[in-house]
Amino acid sequence: MKKFALSALLLVAGTASAGPILVTGAGATFPFPLYSKWFAEYNKAFPDIRFNYQSIGSGGGIQQFTNGTVDFGATDAPMNPDEMAKAADAVHVPTVLGAVVVTYNAPFAGLKLTPDLLAAIYLGKVSKWSDPALAKVNPGIKFPDMPITVVRRSDGSGTTYVFTDYLAKVSSEWKEKVGTGKSVSWPAGLGGKGNEGVTGLIKQTPGSIGYVELAYANQNKLPLTTLQNRDGNFVAPSLESTSAAAAGVQMPADYRVSLTNAAGATAYPIASFTYLLIHKDMADQAKGEAIVKFLWWAIHDGQKLAAPLDYAPLPKSVVSMVEKTVQGLQVQGKPVTLAAAQ
Amino acid sequence: MPQPSDTTAGVGPSPLARAHVSPWGDRAWGAGVSILGGSILVVAGLILAELGGVSLVAWKKLGLLRFLFGSDWDPVQDKFGALPFIYGTLVTSTIAIVVAVPVSVGLALFLSEMGPKQLRRPVGFAIEVLAAIPSVIFGLWGLFVMVPWLRESVEPFLQAVLGFLPLFQGPMIGLGYLAAGLILAIMILPTIASVTLEVLKTVPLALKEGALALGATRWEAIRMAVLPYARPGIVGAALLGLGRALGETMAVTMVIGNAPDIHASLFAPGYSLPAVIANEFAEATGDVHVGALASLGLVLFGITVLLNALAQVLIRAVSRGMSRGAA
Amino acid sequence: MTSLRWRKFVDRFWTLASAAGVLAALVPLASLLWLVVSHGAAGLSWTFFTNLPAPVGETGGGVGNGIVGTLLLVAIASVIALPVGIGAGVFLAEKGNGRAGELIRFVTEVLSGVPSIVIGIVAYGLVVARMKHFSALAGGLALALLMIPTLARSTEEFVRLVPGALREASLALGVPKWKTSLLVILRTAAGGIITAVLLAVARAAGETAPLLFTALNNQYWNLRADQPTASLTVQIFNYAISPYEDWHNKAWTAALVLLLLVGVLNLLARILSRNRMEGAR
Fold first, then answer.
1. What is the span of the domain harbouring residue C72?
2. Using one digit for the tens of pLDDT, what is the confidence trace for B251-281?
3. Residues in A touching C57 (Cβ below 8 Å)
4. Which residues contact C74 (CB under 8 A, 6 or more apart)?
5. Does the predicted TM-score (pTM) go above 0.90?
6. A13, B81, B241, B323: which could form a disulfide with B188 (CB 3.0–4.6 Å)?
7. Is residue C181 in a domain?
8. Is B250 on the interface with C (CB under 8 A)?
9. Which of B28, B39, B249 sits opposite C209 (nearest CB)?
10. Would C265 be classed as within a structural domain?
11. CB A201 within 8 A of CB A192
C-alpha cells in the first residue's frame, strides 16, 4: 500500500514540476532526416527546449494536429478543404524542398522512365522487368527476367500525395482509376510504413521498385531513376533539379501549391515543398514562443543544414514571405519578438 | 463447570468476551473487494462502449453488410470494405493452425508419453521460453531470417513441386501470407502444446493401461485410447491457439506485406485485421475512417471472444469426463 | 499388415514423428535466440544504455530512453493493474460463488482474450483523445488492461489454494474477517501472487501494438506520465523496418536487452514458485 502511494506521489510530482520545455510534433516522414537533425542541433544550442518529433506520416500529422494531441504537425500534402474546415486556425509554413525519387533493387544502374511507363508499372500493367516497354526507353540496360515488385506506403502519406498527384497529371488512366490522395486504393504492391519502411522493403526485396524521398535513397545508397519531365528531358533528381521545379511556380499566399510536373528544362517532375502545421494563435506561452523562435531559426540558419542532407533550401522569395507569416503568428494573442531577419 | 475465563487465565481476557467487535473493518473490506471485483465489469463495459461508440459512425454511413463483405479499402472515397483483412486474417490463421496443431500434439505427446524422461524437463523449459518471447522480436527474426529463407529456398521449392496449384504461383518475395502464417504457427505452438499437455494428463490412466494390457504398442495405445478421449480438448487447445493467432499484430505486420488485396497465392502479400489497425489508426482522417478501423477491432474482439468461449467449453468437457472416447 | 514387426515399426515411426515435432518447434527458437545474442551482443556498450538516439542516418547514440520508457510504462501499468487485478481475484475467491461471481469470472475470461491492438484503440479513446495528447499514462493504462485479467485469475487460483483450515483457525481465534483475509490468507498466497505479478509484468514489458498510438514515442528522456514516451518494443519495431544498417544492429541489441529483461522476470517467477513448492513440504 505504501509503495502505491509513493509511486502515485512521484507521478504527480513529475507531472507538476517545471523543467525543460517539451514540444511534441508529429507528421511527415518525407523531411524526417532533416527535421531530426534540426531538432538535435537546436537542442544543442538551446538545451532547455526539446522538440519531440515523431515521423508517423503526413496523414497522421494532420489528424493529430487537428485533434490537438500534438503541438504542431508536419505534412508534405497541403491540407484539403475538408481538413481545413476542421482545423480552421492552421497555418502552413513551408520549411524546405524535397524530391520524390523512384528507386529500385535490381542488378543494373541508370534506369530511365517516362511518365507513362511509371504509371503503367504502378497500375500493374507492366509487371516484369523484361517487359519490352522498359527496354525501349533503356536500350543500354540488360534487364533480368524478374517480376517487378511494386512498393508503396501502407500509411497516410504526403509523399504518396505528391507521387499520386504527379501520376494523375501525367496519366488519365491513373486519374480515373486511382486518383490523388495520402492513402489511395493501390492496384498493386507491398505496403511499407513511412519512407523508412518503404526504403527498408526495397533494400531487402530483389526486383522491387518504390517511391521515397531523395534523402532516404541516398543515405541507403539506392539507385535513382531518371524521369522524363514535362519538357521532354530526362532529369535526375538532385538539389538543382528540385530547386528548378520551384523556380517556375508562383507561391500563393497560403503556400498550398503543387510542384509536380513543373515546367522548366531542368525541372525534376516530382518535387514538393514540405510544411509545418502551426496554430495561428497558440495557447501555451512557453511552447508557443519556442515554436515561433524555432521556425525563425529553421528558415534562416536551418536552411544551411538542408543541402548536405539532400534537401533544397527555400527560394529567397519564399523565405521573405515565410518571414512575414512567422512574424504574424501569435502566442496568447500577442506576437513573439524575434531577432532581426538575416 | 469452569468458566471460559478460567481456562484462558494468563492469556488475557478471552476474545470471545469481546462481544462488541466493530463490523466496520469487515464491511469496508467486503465493500472494497466487491468494488474491485465489479471494476472488472466496468472495464469490460468501457471497452465495449468505447469501441462501439466509435464504430457507430462507420456503420451508419457504410451499412453493416457492405462493410463486412466489401473488398474495396479506399480512404480517398470513404469506401471501406473489410473483406481483404478478414481474408488475410483467415488465411494466415489457417496456415498457422494447419502447421502448429500437428507439431504441438507431437510435442505434447513427446513430453507426456513418447519422449525419454530426461529430455522432458529441458524441452518443456524450451517451450516456456518460446512462450515468453515478445511478438516484436519474432517479427524482427521473421523479417531478417525467415523471409529471406522463404524467398530463396522454400518458395522456389514449393513452386517447383506444387506449382500447378494456384496456392503456390506468382512472384516469390518472401513476404506474404505464408511468412505470416508460419511466424504465427511458431508463436502459438506453446499455447496449443501446453494446453494439450494438460488435457493429456486428465486422460484416465486406466484407458491407456487397458490398451497396453491388451497388447497394443505405445503408439497404438495412444491412437486408440488416449487421443479419442482427448480430442475435444485438443480441438479446444487449437481454438485457443487460433484465438491468439487472430489477434497477433506486430510479427504479422512486419512480414505480411501490408497489401489490402485478395490473392489466391500464399506467396502474395496481404493484410490482416490487427495489422491494418496498427498501420492506419494514428492517422485515420475523418470519423468514418476511424470508425471503420474501430469496427475492425470490434469484429476481431467478437471473433476471439467466441473462440475462447468455445475452447473453454471443449477443454472443460474433457476434464469432466464427458468426452465420447470415454465410453 | 498387422504383424508385430509392422506395428513396432509404426510405433517407432510415430515416436520419430513426434520428435520431429519437437525439432520443428526448437529449431526456430534456437535460431532466434542465437541470432539475438550473436547480433545483439556486439552492440552492447555503455553508450547503448545511456545515450539518446542519434539523428536519422547517423550512427552512434543508444536506446537509453527506450529502456527507461519501458520501465516507466510498466510502473504505471502496475500501479493501476495490481490493486484492480489482485482485488478482483480476491473477490472471486472469497465471494465469487454466486451469480455475480460467475458473471465476473466469465467476463474476466473474455477480457483475457482481447487482442492488444484493440486495447490500444480503447486506451486512445479513453485517455489520448480526452487529454489531448499522447502520454505514458495512456500507454500504461493499455498495458494495465492487458494485465488485469491474468492477475485476477491467478490471484483467485492462489487464494483458493490456501487451506480452508487456516481461515477457520484465524476466525476461531477472533481475528476479524477482514484482517484474516488480508494478513493471513493473502500473506499465505503472496508467493503465488507475486509470481503472477512478475509474469504479468514480463508480458506487459514485451507489448508493442497498444503503445503505437498511446505512448507514441519520444526522442528524449521522459519520466512524466503526461508526456509521450519511448519504449524498447516500439524502438525495436521502428528500427527493424527502417533501411539503416546501424538501426538494424541496434534493433538486435535492443531485442537482446528486452529478452534479458523478460527472461530475468520469468526466472524470478520460477524460482519463487519452486521455493514455495519446496517450502510447502
1. 67-234
2. 999 999 888 888 889 999 999 999 988 888 8
3. 33, 215, 219, 309
4. C140, C143, C201, C204, C205
5. no
6. B241
7. yes
8. yes
9. B249
10. no
11. yes
